[in-house]
Amino acid sequence: MNHTVRKIIRDLGLKNEFARVMVLRSPFDFLSAVLNANMLESFIRIMERGEGESLSNAFWKFLIFSMLLFGYNATIWATISINTDMMFHKRLRLRLMDSMLSRTEQEMDRLSAGDWITRLNMDVDKTADYITCPLNFMHAMIASVNLILSSVILVFLNPKLFTVTVLVMIPFFILSSFVIIRKIPYYRRKSQESQAEYTNWMEPIVEAGDAITIFDGEEIVLREVEEKSLNIMRQNVKTNKLTSLSSTVTIISGNLGYVLLLLMGNSMIGKGVKDFAQLTKITQYRGQMMMGVMCVNSCINNMKSNLSGAERVEEVINE
User: Which of 3, 61, 102, 316 is deepest in the core (most CB within 10 A)?
Assistant: First the structure.
């Protein structure tokens, strides 16, 4: 977690609440991976033996375990995660309002009205999105637990496949998650600043539309509004291009890994892998590793995008 967001959470007194949510939600992906891997292995072995009755029993057993697992996750989400998210929004907005009300008129004038509005609304939402929104910090943490534990299991099941997976994964992950997206926070912050300027030009249109018309100021105002809108679009396009490029690199990494798996799969039977059922189980954990990497990559992209909001909020709180 970025130190700015961590500082905001600590200042709002929600450190323990978020730690509790993370601990309770973190095992979900890994437990689901273990359940799926063992389910496929069991189904294949039962079908190879031709035991129809055993297949039906295994189906119901795994169905019950799946329902319990997803029921647990839904319960944690409904009873704890949502309440913590709502509490974070409430406390952060109140903290910003208290900071604004405690300032002198000269201090308030340091930022424009549009800047204050965007910080109270868009930037607060981005700060909250950094933590709990899908494919952000919370999901990165869950995916990381799944990635680490699935990797440990794959090391014991098939060190050769684990080594190949890591060698393919690491260079692409570094390129995608750190090199390509390093400029995203800068572009997002510029977009937020342009949004504040755009909001500033909306105020005279609403409050002084008649005066603008009388003094023939429509062209000036519209030209400024157009320029601010184009600035927002330019920064967002730059961000989206980097995000798309990062996702493309991650997909190439995953597909390359599957090609290598196809080339290696047949030769692995009888050499550390006794049959097709075990190979299927092993490839499930390899798939979970790749899925974890892709999820973490997407989360890092989104966290980088939302970090601009957290930085702007923190500036007001601790100024």
Answer: 316
